[in-house]
Amino acid sequence: MPSWNQTEQEFIESLRQSQREIYKAKKILVIGGGAVGVEIAGEIAAHHAEKSVTLVHKDYGLLSPTPFTKVNEKLQKGGMDIHSYSSPPTDPRLSIDLQNLCKKLGIKTILNVRVFFPSSDKNTEVKWDGKFGLQDELVTVRLKSGDSIKADYIHCGCGMKPNSNLVGEIDQNALDGDLIRVNEYLKVNSTSKVSILNNNHYYAIGDVCSCPGFKVGHTAFASAAKTASNIINEIKGRTLSKYNPGFISGLNLPLGPNEGAGMATFGWLGTWVFGSRLTNRARGKDAGTEKYFAGRFKGDNKPDMKVDF
Ligand SMILES: Cc1cc2nc3c(=O)[nH]c(=O)nc-3n(C[C@H](O)[C@H](O)[C@H](O)COP(=O)(O)OP(=O)(O)OC[C@H]3O[C@@H](n4cnc5c(N)ncnc54)[C@H](O)[C@@H]3O)c2cc1C
Description:
This is FAD/NAD(P)-binding domain-containing protein. Residues 15-83, 89-220 form the FAD/NAD(P)-binding domain. Pfam families: Pyr_redox_2. The protein is of the alpha/beta class. It contains eight helices and ten strands. Helix content is 28%, strand content 18%. A five-stranded mixed sheet has the order 3-2-1-5-4. The longest helix has 19 residues, at 217-235. The relative contact order is 0.14. The mean pLDDT is 87. Residues 4, 35-36, 39, 163, 166, 206-208, 215-218, 220, 250-252 line the site of flavin-adenine dinucleotide (FAD).
């Protein structure tokens, strides 16, 4: 994975390097059937039909589906009871749809199994030393079920966490687990009375903060917009307004340029699960990279913040 402190050129080069490595590989193993693992497996399988792609996931369904009752319970509260790092509860129908799409793309999915990091099967076989990316040769990755998989490219799609080190290194009491502890205005809120982070000058937004609601793009945007308006409120001496994530949320996963599935949740109205047609419409052929990410930093589309004082 590219690191956060790379320059743009280094970042692009590391992505190209991954592409070159995937071209060379024949047997690809993706560890983790969350959004990252499913999208990567789909992307590789769609572009390289001749390669073998295997996806191993620790849960009984892709994206770890939540039973219907739990989904409804959480959604009716708009996810407000969730204060830790959490993705939206996956509707089991979405999990099944994604599994069917994997099958269609020739991806072998192995569920309910964990991988040993690093691992070897028998002494005679080449041990996997835990390194990700292109391997020097075909290695044997051992599963906790007792089975094993041979691979020459291994992608890690699990264990990703928001990086709160910047704050944690200053004050551990300003963390709630791995997240930055915030109050209802998204201001950093340490449990230590003497913390320099409690001086009311710091906000934390998006995935890395402990605000209620699911950790998705929509809530990251909402927390950014709320914080921007509260900073203006502060400058103008106005009262701050509290953050509320709202109760609409969604997920949308492209598996290559032509397939995909997603869900949109509308609080107590329920959850709508949709397929490739809508996913392609929303994300296009490039997984939405240009529309939702790179395009925002270019030319006329580059965001320009104008503040009217
Ligand atoms: C594969 C995948 C699919 C997803 N699909 C959807 C979807 O369909 N719909 C949806 O709504 N959400 C989706 N999400 C979730 C969504 O991407 C996140 O919720 C959203 O990006 C959070 O925004 P953010 O700004 O908080 O964090 P990020 O987008 O992660 O941005 C944080 C940035 O901070 C940088 N950074 C980290 N540490 C430091 C530091 N110390 N100093 C400076 N910079 C630092 C990071 O490099 C990164 O660029 C998906 C996520 C993944 C991984």
